[in-house]
Amino acid sequence: MSNTPDNRSSAEASPGDAEEQHDAKELLAEGVDEEVIESNRRLFTGWQWALFGGLAVAYSLFHLITLNVIPMETWSYRVIHIAGALILGYGLYTGGRFATDGQQAAPKWQTVLSALLLLPALYALLQTFLMWRTIQGGAMRIEPHIEAWHYGYPLILATAAAIVMSWCYRQVREKCALPDLVLMVCALASAGYFLVIYNTPLRMSTGTSFAPMGISYAAIAGSLLILEMTRRVTGNALVIISLVFLLYVWGGPYLPGFLGYPGLSVGRFFSQVYTDAGILGPTTAVSSTYIILFIIFAAFLQASKVGDYFVNFAFAAAGRARGGPAKVSIFASGLMGMINGTSAGNVVSTGSLTIPLMKKVGYPARSAGAIEAAASSGGQIMPPIMGAGAFIMAEITGIPYREIAVAALIPAALYFLSVYCMVDFEAARKGMRGMRKDEIPQFRRLIKHVYLFAPIIILIAALFMGYSVIRAGTLATASAAMVSWLSPHKMGIRSILKALQLAGTMSIQIIVVCACAGLIVGVISLTGVGARFSSLLLGLAGVSQLLALFFAMCISILLGMGMPTTAAYAVAASVVAPGLIGIGIQPLVAHFFVFYFAVMSAITPPVALAAYAASGISGANAMETSTTSFKIGLAAFIVPFMFFYSPAILMEGSGMQILRVAVTATIGVIMLAAAVQAWYFGAVKAWQRLLLLAGAICMIYGGIYTDVAGLLVGGGLLLMQRSLKRGGDSPQTAN
């Protein structure tokens, strides 16, 4: 984004002004951390732009005020949280394709039919108001025929028909489509009923035969709205998985073996799925508190240009090293991914700058995309924020947040060290250079603005001083605006409103994904399928614990494919983690094991969202990029097994145990990178790579004897490389 021009000519500008303008330019990393505009995203103009911009600002402010000043009843707050995201989402994202230049917009019959669908939607919304009046008048419950014929049937009809209509309805990109207006009204009607009923004693009847059928009608409509919105913002993968789980609710009783269960009626299931047993449960609890707060924090970093400073600081620090842009990608993407919460989104925001630069210094297109994907995914395991994963884990397990953040330190350091070594060894093997001095920002100028790291420092300090996550996040958000006043990019009222609008827009994807994940969690908890998976793991553990862990890894990756990190972990934690705990693994170890593989599903073929996003920027084949990113992030697929065999890596043990495991695992991941990249203080042959791989696994495993074996392998190959160099017989650098 360009800076505001000075009214004076450059000839009249003072030396101090020129210096400040140069500093302002140095702070910006062009093309980084800008809002991503998806292909199905509307670009409003005029009053519609003002309307939806105002709604996004109001949505962000609602969360800030409710979390910090005026608390609400929990279920009501979560219902509004989801409904607001749905209303914004249906306004901003189309369900089909836009009418482009030269194409006719929707035919008249579609417009008429969509307008007619507004009638049952508005009628259902009117009924929620009338039911509220009835309850306020002292009635204990609503008449069943009113809930069915005057509310439920019109609402479900309007919702289902408008969803189907939105798939084929064409409208120009600057205007909202009529079917989406119908869906926004349906979201209001569904949420309105929940707000009426959940604030009466009838709330206690959910899941029983006494529950009003209106809850089921509202839940069916709400579930359809969540599934369709999830399809629009993340694609079909999560929707298909959700539908499979929903089909299991009614098909499960007919399945053989451990998959079978007694069965649930439609009314009983849907009367409970839109409660804290499902959609309003742990995933929405986290998205409505920690995640939305850190999305607002990230938006303030973006609007204040602090995010740009992070990237440029990484360029100044590592840009001149061999393969410099790749190392910059590791630092910048790791830092931004920690806050971002979605691997693919982080790839797009930082990769637009780092991937072309990596290609420029000699990395193949597939390697450039893979490095960015691996680094961006790694941000999700980097404390203190871990892409909100730490907060979800704390919510599910009841383990204090600080313990989780501390436990994540060594594994995250090992992962990024491994990726760094992969990058460095490839650069050495191919004889790559770093960036020239004139291609990177001047460190002496950037160091003057090191105070821009203050929001991150304040966040970490507040968390470890015992402040609540919400209070710490709010302080960090306020500090992002305040430190901008000391920089050349000061945040005024307009910038603050822009940040709030950006936060409201950015939050849509993660909120609906968490709600959709809550739907899956509801199926798991209400049908008991999670307990049956636990018994399966217990049976496998009787044969081999390693086999049980391998099976748990495969299920975690499979469940996470095509899903954002937050949803992937939430689902895997419900299905897999209880089974691991059941075979005797500590809850912290079990959840970290599941969390790592859920995160790394973003770079695991065949469905690797982060790698696919990177291939779109690099121009490489998507499958080749995902395979290469899997290779670069290989350490993350080995280290979780160490959680079980050496819990000291999660700070579980004495100081000497933790130190020994950290040191040996560090050597192990370096040897692992050397085996993958065929470079260990010089080029290595195939048999030497196999030895390095075996030695790396021994070191990572963590036992005394395996550590000694790994050290002997690493030391022996190091001496061999040294002797070859002294003898002048070093292998030629590979191309």
Strand content: under 5%
How many strand segments?
A: 0
Query: Helical region count?
Result: 32
Distance between the termini: 39 Å
Oligomeric status of the shown chains? Answer: single chain
Uncertain runs are 1-16, 24-29, 729-735
The main pleated sheet reads as: none
Rounded mean pLDDT score:
86
Find the structural class using helix and strand composition.
mainly alpha
Task: Specify the overall morphology.
Answer: globular
Fraction in helix: over 70%
- CA radius of gyration is 27 Å
Question: What does it look like?
Answer:
The chain has 32 helices and no strands. The model is unreliable at 1-16, 24-29 and 729-735 (pLDDT under 50). The chain has helices at 15-27, 46-68, 74-92, 108-136, 144-168, 178-197, 213-234, 237-251, 266-273, 282-303, 306-318, 324-340, 343-360, 365-378, 389-397, 401-407, 409-429, 443-446, 454-464, 469-484, 493-527, 529-543, 545-560, 565-575, 577-582, 587-600, 609-618, 622-632, 635-645, 655-677, 686-701, 704-726. By secondary structure, it is mainly α. Helix 17 (409-429) runs antiparallel to helix 29 (635-645), helix 23 packs antiparallel against helix 24 and helix 30 (655-677) runs antiparallel to helix 31 (686-701). The longest helix is centred in the last third of the chain and has 35 residues, at 493-527. Helix content is 70%, strand content 0%. It is globular. It is a multi-pass membrane protein. Keywords: Cell inner membrane, Cell membrane, Membrane, Transmembrane, Transmembrane helix, Transport. It comes from Franzmannia qiaohouensis. Residues 222-650 form the TRAP C4-dicarboxylate transport system permease DctM subunit domain. This is TRAP transporter permease.
